[in-house]
Amino acid sequence: xxxxxxxxxxxxxxxxxxxxxxxxxxxxxxxxxxxxxxxxxxxxxxxxxxxxxxxxxxxxxxxxxxxxxxxxxxxxxxxxxxxxxxxxxxxxxxxxxxxxxxxxxxxxxxxxxxxxxxxxxxxxxxxxxxxxxxxxxxxxxxxxxxxxxxxxxxxxxxxxxxxxxxxxxxxxxxxxxxxxxxxxxxxxxxxxxxxxxxxxxxxxxxxxxxxxxxxxxxxxxxxxxxxxxxxxxxxxxxxxxxxxxxxxxxxxxxxxxxxxxxxxxxxxxxxxxxxxxxxxxxxxxxxxxxxxxxxxxxxxxxxxxxxxxxxxxxxxxxxxxxxxxxxxxxxxxxxxxxxxxxxxxxxxxxxxxxxxxxxxxxxxxxxxxxxxxxxxxxxxxxxxxxxxxxxxxxxxxxxxxxxxxxxxxxxxxxxxxxxxxxxxxxx
Length: 427
Ligand SMILES: Cc1cc2nc3c(=O)[nH]c(=O)nc-3n(C[C@H](O)[C@H](O)[C@H](O)COP(=O)(O)OP(=O)(O)OC[C@H]3O[C@@H](n4cnc5c(N)ncnc54)[C@H](O)[C@@H]3O)c2cc1C
Ligand code: FES
Hints:
CATH architecture of the largest domain: Sandwich
Shape: globular
Helix content: 10-25%
Number of helices: 10
CATH superfamily of the largest domain: Jelly Rolls
CATH topology of the largest domain: Jelly Rolls
Bound molecules: flavin-adenine dinucleotide, FE2/S2 (inorganic) cluster
CATH class of the largest domain: Mainly Beta
Strand order of the largest sheet: 18-17-16-15-19-20-23
Structural class: alpha+beta
Distance between the termini: 47 Å
Number of domains: 3
Radius of gyration: 24 Å
Mean pLDDT: 85
């Protein structure tokens, strides 16, 4: 005789540590399902109102890349959980899932479960914390698949803290730098260069923005924001005193420790200088730890260069700052051309250099090429990636690039890890 759902959950690694009353509530949203070998379990773009606790059999997670056909990102097996898209709007599958062999699973109705979590937030927390507890390496053992696992974030990851705008300074026609301070006058959270925050404007939306300030300065968090759409425009227009919700910090950091004693080359395109500015602050605070430091900046036109007032201060700390623009009017005395044209002129020893690159993806690809041509080993090239984000903690799949989640595996990556995916168009 088939066991009831509650008894099956008590044996499933994902649910077995949950409190029995919560497990009983969740069981009310579940039913037994089977899929035959080869059968599609979920299809990209379809409404995602279910997730599955696999009991027997194996499934593949597939992504369809234009011109490449299906790519298997991961295989899941008994004890794993399949699917988190039901948790986050727009509740659509972001991948295909297929049974490799016959699968027996418990299927949960997302709407039913969301309703129960809304009515009993403590149960929702208990449920979510099951997946947050597991680390990357412990995934299989604790039955979470790696696309939902992460190291526990430093603070409550889905709760915005209330900050207020202390200063809002104009950088260019569409870009502002804001200082945000906690409303309760506590210290802002610690963070590392390269990390980002999720900034929430009440009633408008939430977006990821890199931290562009000094990591040693803990009373405010500084962000440089370009008005690209509704949320970023609302942030740019925020006056001193305006309340903004802040979650984070999230993501990986620039590998500054690994570069100590070596040459550092920073390549920034446009707004890409913002996530590199904390690296400059950190280097200036401990200049003797690094050998030659080159900063290569590219912008479309001189009037959209970020932080021009700071260039002389950086140069005074023995940082070789070079600037180029795509197009300039008469009177511009700097270089004209893409930022890659600065690479052959920059002063660094290729065998002892690491490069941090941020900008549009096409610019990063050419910068990688130019640095490789000068002999910098590819594993010492680091890029920071941008993708649309919702959760920032590896749950929703919005930021996925190949097997990586930009929000939790990145945004900073060693280039060789992403290279196979960056060569696929439209991915
Ligand atoms: C890790 C990370 C760090 C970022 N750091 C900064 C930063 O320091 N400063 C800054 O100004 N912006 C940064 N961005 C980009 C910023 O998040 C987007 O500009 C913002 O999400 C746009 O949202 P919106 O609602 O204002 O506009 P929308 O209406 O959502 O979008 C406006 C335009 O921007 C494009 N867009 C939306 N989201 C992104 C995105 N994540 N990446 C690239 N293009 C996007 C849209 O396709 C559209 O063309 C970062 C993004 C990521 C992922
Ligand atoms: S998985 Fe949700 S934003 Fe990365």
